[in-house]
């Protein structure tokens, strides 16, 4: 059985929820339809003509890419233009294109976390805070016979996380009373008669971002026809997500040694470097994509170096005077998203027992040549 397009995308949006994207970012389905079976998915950094040809050879039904193919509203679709030809080719071969951009950058376990992990950054924090999850307290009353089943469902859906602790809950024994009405089909008791039932009050913490998922899991596991539960907004804040990552390296290295690590881990032959190559680096920052405007964020967070792309001349001069080093391996290092996204989707599809295949694009979409 093959997964439907929307099923594949639901897995992708578990990894990179759309609400994490910066305002006006061009994400989501950009071309084609998801109302079809997906036999093969191609994961790419960019959707170039070479990548589309690769998708055609593979007989892919869907391309999931990081960079958008439609940046601004189209006034016309001229198939004589290079992009028009690209759109035409995709439509003729019924290949849908879905974009996961800054939401994949911001997401926990997304591009910036993969980059940080690759060079050995530990105890990471965002360079720029964008989203703080609000917390709710979920309270539900369940008969003792189904206490563990409902608790497992709630915690299994992601509730109960406090800091580095998971599956946190508080459970109190008590008695519930109710009278089933004439139109009811009660799990316990009889219509019109007062019932007094041994129940357990379950309390736990639920982030706003997953509260609907948790409540649905609870309702599915709960035996009652009408479930008594409450959600209370809390002043306590949940996790904060944002662009970039910063943290201490697993062990201090010289800047020139970190350059070698970056070249090896991101598979680049050359990088641009700002700073003394013999400087010791203890704390590092990373940001996928264009990072010029985040150099000061890294400096403010105490980083000795920032690894990012597309640094302009004046930003490099300012960084040199401010005393922060820069390693610029180029924008294309975001290609780290290909194998990691493939791994995520494969695991989700295999767990769902779908035969849909996921492939990483083998095309090099780096537009620059070093001569």
From TrEMBL:
Pfam families: DUF34_NIF3. A divalent metal cation binds at residues 66-67, 105, 331, 334. Transmembrane segments: none annotated. Keywords: Metal-binding. Belongs to the GTP cyclohydrolase I type 2/NIF3 family. It comes from the Bacteria. One of its GO terms (molecular function) is metal ion binding. InterPro entries: DUF34/NIF3 (IPR002678), DUF34/NIF3_bac (IPR017221), DUF34/NIF3_sf (IPR036069), N-reg_PII/ATP_PRibTrfase_C (IPR015867). This is GTP cyclohydrolase 1 type 2 homolog. GO terms for cellular component: cytoplasm.
């Amino acid at each position: 059985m093959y997964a439907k397009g929307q099923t594949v995308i639901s897995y992708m949006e578990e990894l990179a929820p759309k609400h994490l994207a910066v305002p006006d970012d061009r994400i989501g389905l950009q071309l084609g339809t998801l109302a079809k079976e997906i036999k093969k998915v191609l994961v790419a950094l960019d959707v170039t003509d070479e990548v589309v040809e690769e998708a055609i050879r593979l007989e892919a039904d869907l391309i999931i890419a990081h960079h958008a193919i439609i940046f601004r509203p189209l006034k016309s679709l001229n198939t004589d233009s290079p992009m028009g030809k690209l759109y035409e080719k995709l439509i003729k071969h019924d290949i849908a294109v879905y974009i996961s951009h800054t939401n994949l950058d911001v997401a926990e376990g997304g591009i910036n976390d993969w980059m940080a992990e690759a060079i050995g950054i530990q105890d990471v924090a965002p360079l720029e805070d964008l989203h703080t999850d609000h917390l709710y307290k979920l309270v539900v009353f369940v008969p003792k016979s189904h206490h563990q089943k409902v608790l497992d469902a709630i915690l299994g859906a992601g509730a109960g996380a406090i800091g580095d602790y998971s599956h946190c809950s508080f459970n109190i024994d008590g008695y519930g009373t109710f009278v089933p009405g004439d139109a009811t089909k009660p799990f316990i008791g009889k219509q019109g008669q007062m019932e007094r039932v041994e129940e357990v009050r379950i309390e736990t913490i639920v982030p706003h971002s997953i509260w609907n998922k948790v409540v649905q899991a609870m309702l599915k596991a709960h035996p009652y026809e009408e479930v008594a539960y409450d959600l209370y907004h809390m002043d306590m804040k949940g996790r904060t997500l944002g662009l970039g990552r910063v943290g201490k390296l697993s062990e201090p290295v010289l800047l020139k040694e970190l350059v070698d690590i970056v070249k090896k881990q991101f598979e680049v032959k050359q990088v641009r470097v700002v700073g003394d190559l013999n400087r010791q680096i203890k704390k590092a920052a990373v940001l996928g994509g264009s990072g010029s405007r985040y150099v000061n964020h890294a400096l403010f967070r105490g980083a000795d170096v920032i690894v990012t792309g597309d640094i302009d001349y004046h930003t490099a001069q300012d960084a040199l005077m401010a005393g922060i080093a820069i390693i610029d391996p180029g924008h294309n290092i975001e290609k780290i998203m290909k194998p990691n996204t493939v791994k995520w989707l494969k695991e989700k599809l295999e767990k769902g027992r779908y035969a849909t295949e996921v492939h990483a694009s083998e095309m090099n979409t780096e537009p620059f040549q070093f001569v």
